[in-house]
Amino acid sequence: MPDDTELLAQIGRGDQAAFRTLLDRHARYLFGVAHAMSGSTADAEDLVQETLMGAVTSAGKFRGESSVRTWLVRILVNKVRMWRRSDRKHERTVRLNDVGASGRPPGEPASAGGSVSATVDAKLDLTQMLAQLTPEHRQVIILRELQGMSYEEMAQALDVPRGTVESRLHRAREELRKRFKGYR
After folding, report:
1. Could you read off the pLDDT of 45-56 as tens digits, one per residue?
2. Same structural domain for residues 53 and 132?
3. For FRET with 142, which of 57, 154, 165, 174 sits at 20 to 30 Å CA-CA?
4. Residues 131 and 177 reside in one and the same domain
């Protein structure tokens, strides 16, 4: 099984099977990041599609300075920035159609414990909390706390120094503590 770097080389040569393999490995992860940043299933799907198309057209530009996943997240973060600046940008709230009849976003498994209602409430609370943050603070919280990226991976994905990542994360956490002091 080829590694991600080899898959990119194969994609650069037009190999559709390599693209499908890369898609299978990373699309779900990218969707999670995109959904957390956009708050919308439809927008997240569009952002992931744009990210993957950007990766295909830039496959020859991958320099191997980070993992392919970090490189893909960097492309995604740039797509999110452009999306926010575009005419499509407007205040987003959680759309009720993003939560299916089961009380979960489409494709998400049922939680092991607790009620569906509590799970939905917690997700709505998290979405509302993240919406209160600046885009830069929201990005670092999502990448660190929800996606588990290291400081180095975040710095590469966001194209900022590690110290900037650390200070943004500190400020974002402080902002959440201040705004939601009495939260559960």
Report:
1. 999 999 988 888
2. no
3. 57
4. yes
Identify whether the C-beta of residue 59 lies closer than 8 Å to the C-beta of residue 12: yes
Type of residue at 3: D
Chain centre to alpha carbon of residue 79:
11
- Output the CA torsion 82→34→54→63 (10° steps): 110
pTM: 0.64
Q: Which positions ≥6 away from 89 have C-beta within 8 Å? A: 83
Single out the residue of 175, 176, 138, 128 nearest to residue 158, CA to CA. 138
Q: For 140-175, write each residue's pLDDT tens digit.
A: 998 998 888 899 999 998 989 999 999 999 999 998
Same domain as 166, residue 83:
no
Domain termination residue (choose one: 68, 88, 108): 88
